[in-house]
User: What shape does this take?
Amino acid sequence: MPTSIDLPHGGYRKLIAYRKSETLYQGTVVFCRRFLPPHGDRTVDQMVQAARSCKQNIAEGSAAAGTSSETEIKLTGVARATLDELREDYLDRLRASGNEPWGTEDERLKAARTFAKEHPDWDDWREIFETRPEETLCNLMIVLCHQEYALLSGMIKRQEEVFRKNGGIRERMHAARTETRAEEWDKAMYSRLDLAKTPEELSQRASDMRSALERAVLSISHRKGWK
Assistant: This one.
């Protein structure tokens, strides 16, 4: 099969990581509307932008995957990095109100982890974010950030494996050109043989080609220092 320059890409809307990033974004928008002032607080812009950056970089990385695995890995890494910022914002909101994140033995945390794992889509969270108190939503968002971080880490690992297997676009273009030249060489050799008018001429042409090929092999071996 000929080397493909353009790798499979797209389809990011089906990814659990992308669906969960949409929940993070929509949830942040609702959270800010309910609990933060609409004007004069830079925290609103920072939180919404961080949540949006996660979602958008997943989408852009998926689109770039067809031609540049390096760009896909970089953008997925940016998406993951924004989660640290978003998680810190929710931790700050908790502590500003005199609360702390749910502990590892807290039944609320265990229930939240299970629900978040089984329900990545915003439709499953909409009513929760419209009705629950601020402390609860901060903790839920921290859970979502942790799970999304793990999903994106897994994506980066798989993307790195694809890069190691297929290389970058330069490597794939070089391989494709090499294959094309090889095909052209094969066609040229066949044409030269096919021009023979008699069995004797065909045999002579084949002998000349073998001699030329042997000289080429010796020349390349000598140039590369091979014995």
In short: Residues 1-10 have pLDDT under 50 and may be disordered. Residues 120 and 137 are 15 Å apart (CA to CA). Residues 173-224 form one domain. The chain is about 75% helix and 0% strand.
